[in-house]
Amino acid sequence: MHAHLDSYIKTWNRIHEQTKRIMAAAPNDKYDWKPCESAMSLGELVNHPWISEWGLIEAALTGSFPKEWPAPLSDTASALAAFDKAHEEAVAKVMALTSEQLAEDVAPFSPERPLTRMAVLKMTIEHEIHHRGQLYTYLRIAGCEIPPLFSVETVQEFDDGR
Ligand code: NI
User: Fold this and answer.
1) What is the per-residue pLDDT across 45-62, written as a single tens digit (0 to 9) for each?
2) Number of domains in the chain
3) In the chain, N or C: fewer CB atoms in 10 Å?
């Protein structure tokens, strides 16, 4: 595996662990809550990281988003387990890509808007960070105990990504 991808995978794994910490704070009995009609419910938002990661990686690999998507799960423990499984499978698929495949264009959004596979992989991380921020806001409003994004216990994760 070349150095660029190695660094990407380390960052992706670290972000995965951070996202799990805030997901784990979501109470099952608040899954229907949403801040406004057009927003995702808390339950949809807890499921979004694992379902969207799976879909985005399929898009990066095959050039198309899946036609059918997995159903959201109704409790946080199951969503966390699904996220770990989806992430592990996604990492294995991405690690198998060659430098040439990473640099190849795919066009999952529109035929007129090709992106390299590597660009879609970077987008996958940015998308997760975006929704993770939403989870922090939802859970803070819901009065939940929320973990810090960075703590003395977890800051070492950054050093491991060097
Ligand atoms: Ni999204």
Assistant:
1) 999 999 999 999 999 999
2) 1
3) C
